[in-house]
């Protein structure tokens, strides 16, 4: 079975029906808040950052937010409006000339439907799909692909040059997204590369979004990476980070994958981000 076969049925594509909600001049780039449809009666908000003075269509980077059990945060953190300044990589990339898009993942920020707006709804989102033979990961990947559909419809974005960057939860998605959408030609996973075989411990466990019935019987993340259609991958890992366990063995078993190992924990420091930006810049350079 192909790797994507474990995802179950893919959500149906619908018309984007996109709208712009706000536009803010941030000095070296413009930040827009937009909304578009990912399914019937399901609309998603995202931030799009557009560098000023573009000479032509620019490379695009999907910036996936972290988890950190902060379900009240999502897209706002990666554009620097809230949370940890070290997570504002969508804004930093825009300052470097990349078009970036950062939506909320299911269950985070504006997509958190809990009464207090900050409780964990992921296991509900998973279980209600599983009983119908579907998976939460399929929905999450569909949302990534739909965000790329939207941003590449804009004249500022070059649809041939698409990258992905994420930390923690976003780092895990950075491994899966290129297997689902081959338009992603460069991806950086920071502190989120732990394979399934190393996740069966009480201090890590499995995140709801990555529960795929039967997948780990014969497969692991090496198989996900092997399914790429030419995507360049950088795994950025912390030597003392539990979510980076297995980074070296994963890279050793995967052809053409680069590893950046740091004497660090579960962080995304300036040095780690700079290496990620350099990698994306080199791989998404103009043809």
From TrEMBL:
It comes from the Bacteria. The keyword Transmembrane helix does not apply. It holds the Pfam family DLH. It comes from Paractinoplanes pyxinae. This is Dienelactone hydrolase family protein. Keywords: Hydrolase. The keyword Cytoplasm does not apply. Belongs to the AB hydrolase superfamily. GO terms for molecular function: hydrolase activity. Residues 77-275 form the Dienelactone hydrolase domain.
């Amino acid at each position: 079975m192909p790797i994507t076969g474990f995802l179950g049925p893919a959500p149906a594509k619908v018309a984007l029906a996109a709208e712009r909600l706000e536009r803010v001049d941030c000095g070296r780039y413009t930040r827009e808040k937009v909304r578009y449809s990912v399914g019937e009666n399901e609309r998603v908000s995202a931030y799009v950052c557009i560098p000023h003075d573009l000479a032509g269509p620019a490379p695009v980077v999907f910036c996936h937010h972290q988890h950190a059990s902060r379900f009240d945060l999502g897209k706002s953190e990666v554009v620097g409006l809230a949370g940890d300044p070290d997570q504002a990589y969508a804004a930093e990339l825009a300052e470097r000339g990349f078009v970036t898009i950062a939506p909320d993942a299911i269950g985070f920020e504006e997509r958190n439907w809990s009464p207090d707006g900050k409780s964990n709804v992921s296991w509900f989102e998973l279980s209600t799909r599983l009983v119908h033979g579907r998976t939460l990961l399929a929905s999450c990947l569909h949302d990534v692909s739909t965000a790329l559909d939207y941003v590449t419809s804009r004249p500022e974005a070059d649809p041939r040059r698409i990258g992905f960057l994420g930390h923690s939860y976003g780092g895990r998605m950075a491994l899966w997204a290129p297997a689902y959408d081959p338009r992603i030609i460069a991806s950086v996973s920071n502190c989120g590369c732990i394979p399934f075989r190393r996740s069966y411990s009480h201090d890590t466990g499995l995140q709801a979004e990555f529960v795929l019935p039967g997948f780990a019987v014969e497969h692991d993340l090496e198989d996900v990476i092997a399914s790429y259609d030419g995507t360049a991958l950088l795994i950025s890992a912390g030597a003392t980070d539990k979510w980076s366990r297995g980074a070296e063995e994963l890279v050793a078993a995967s052809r053409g994958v680069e590893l950046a190992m740091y004497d660090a924990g579960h962080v995304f420091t300036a040095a780690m981000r700079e290496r990620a930006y350099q990698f994306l810049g080199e791989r998404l350079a103009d043809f």
